[in-house]
Amino acid sequence: MTTVKWILPAVALCFSALPLTTKCEEPVRNLMPPNTSASHTFAATRNGNLGGSTSVSDVNIHTLLYPGHTTKVLAHYLPWWFDPKSRGVAVGYRSDDPAQAFRTFKDMQARGVDGVIVDWYGQNDANGQPEPIDVAWRKSMPELAKFPNMSFSIMVDAGTYNFNRCKGCDVTQTVLSQLDYLSRTYFSSPQYLRYDGHPVVYEFGLDWAGKVDWSRIQAAHPEISWVHIHKQGFDRDDSAGAFVWIAPGFAARKTSVADLTELKEFYRYARTEPTKIATGGVFKGFDDLLAAWAKPNEKHYMPQACGDTWLQTFDLVNQNYSATRQLPFLQLITWNDYEEGTALEPGIDNCVTLQTHLSGNALDVKLSHAETVDHLELYQSLAGGEFRLVNRYTPATASIALPAGVSGTLYLKAVGKPFFRNVVSEPITVGRPK
After folding, report:
1. By CB distance 3.0 to 4.6 Å, which of 11, 114, 155, 413 could disulfide with 377?
2. Treating both helix axes as pointing N-terminal to C-terminal, what angle do 261-272 and 308-320 enclose, rounded to 10 degrees?
3. Residue of 42, 146, 144 lying closest to 93 (CA atoms)
4. How many angstroms separate the Cα of 430 from the Cα of each of 7, 315, 405, 407, 427?
5. How far is residue 423's CA from residue 395's CA, in Å, rounded to a whole number?
6. Are 323 and 66 in contact (CB under 8 A)?
7. Is residue 51, in this structure, part of any structural domain at all?
8. What is the layout of strands, in order, in the sheet containing 362-367?
């Protein structure tokens, strides 16, 4: 606690010392609310997921993109959380709970996300019973409808074949068996993602599962724009486009700096195929330490680097696209894969520390990792446990001249750039002289 021995009138005013704020705002009751759709009982994990009670910046995600962009930002979404004992991490919620779905979409909207790409494992399981992930998503759709500006797209995962293929079917036949259902159940939704009028369907790893006749699949439903992973999405004649995925290294070779070679290569290929739908990718890092399917000697890792990896992935987008060369879609990898340490839902640790010191009537500020901070906010504590915003400042601010009329207990808050955690200083007390 920092104390200066002088007093100002105990009034709550609004100031505009900087152009960041020019109007009064309603008092708030909590400077660091647990404000995400993550379960507030979820504890931080060893593979880099923050706890569910973290206060996360709701600065719009689009502020990290190049000026004049028209890019839709889509979160890769995994509706596969059910029995806590069935996966490597107990996240504290169920994906088939409509109330949880509503919280998820409300949280996404608050952060500026335009929609979701749903990782999908087929209509039925291997026993012909409704597939739980599909059931969960169908239960979620009425909740998504409450956010009409958000869209969704299906990503057909290799698990559709590996775990839920039709009896005697190869990969091609498995996909073909799903197309009428996809068209009937999802494409008719006004919220389904379209490009030039065509429904966009992503596929993940199907070519790794076995030989696929994509020409046959395309002919069965020519209205579909299929988007494939990385280079094959650019090379294949019947492909409408490509998306990029995170490429972590082996955990035995952990580094402090992310290797983004494959991401750079993706954008290089994209420039050579301007007619293809490019879906870029951004991510915070990767660590499948807790993934049940990853063998001990096959673990993979990409450092978060206190948020530097996240910001670098956006820098690559901004280096390759502009208002005159637009990126159609950008995928957040991922919203909630807690097992692989990519979950963005509970926020990103930016390692920020915030120290203040009163010197006369000025507040000296020392902020670490300022590149991850969007702005600073100075608050005055009011009677009744509320806080009133005094002013906003840029993260480069080293000294704040306290406006006349501010007294009592103050707090300085570092509001993170999109998806970063927020940080609040220790109380700053302005007291009576003795």
Report:
1. 413
2. 20
3. 42
4. 6, 42, 11, 6, 10
5. 12
6. yes
7. no
8. 354-359, 362-367, 399-401
Last residue of a domain, one of 332, 359, 388: 332
Q: In whole angstroms, what is the distance from residue 332 CA to residue 368 CA?
A: 26
* Residue 260 CA: distances (Å) to CA of 250, 257, 310, 405: 14, 9, 11, 50
Sheet hosting strand 300-302, strand order edge to edge: 249-250, 300-302, 286-287
DSSP string, 150-204: -EEEEEEETHHHHTTPPTT--HHHHHHHHHHHHIIIIITSTTB-EETTEEEEEEE
Q: Which residues pair with 399 in a beta bridge?
A: 364
CATH number at residue 326: 3.20.20.80
Token reading at 295: 């063998």
**Are residue 150 and residue 188 in the same domain, yes or no?**
yes
Same domain, 325 and 361: no
368 and 233 co-located in one domain: no
* Angle value at C-alpha 417, between 115 and 81, nearest 5 degrees: 45
What are the tokens at 365? 């500020």
Per-residue pLDDT of the chain (434 residues; tens, 9 = 90+): 333 322 223 333 444 444 444 456 889 999 999 999 999 999 999 999 999 999 999 999 999 999 999 999 999 999 999 987 667 899 999 999 999 999 999 999 999 999 999 999 999 998 899 999 999 999 999 999 999 999 999 999 999 999 999 999 999 999 999 999 999 999 999 999 999 999 999 999 999 999 999 999 999 999 999 999 998 999 988 899 999 999 999 888 889 999 999 999 999 999 999 999 999 999 999 999 999 887 878 899 999 999 999 999 999 999 999 999 999 999 999 999 999 999 999 999 999 999 999 988 899 999 999 999 999 999 999 989 999 999 999 999 999 998 877 779 999 999 999 999 999 999 998 764 44
pTM for this one?
0.93
SS3 364: strand
Q: Which helix (H) or strand (E) holds 423?
A: strand 423-424
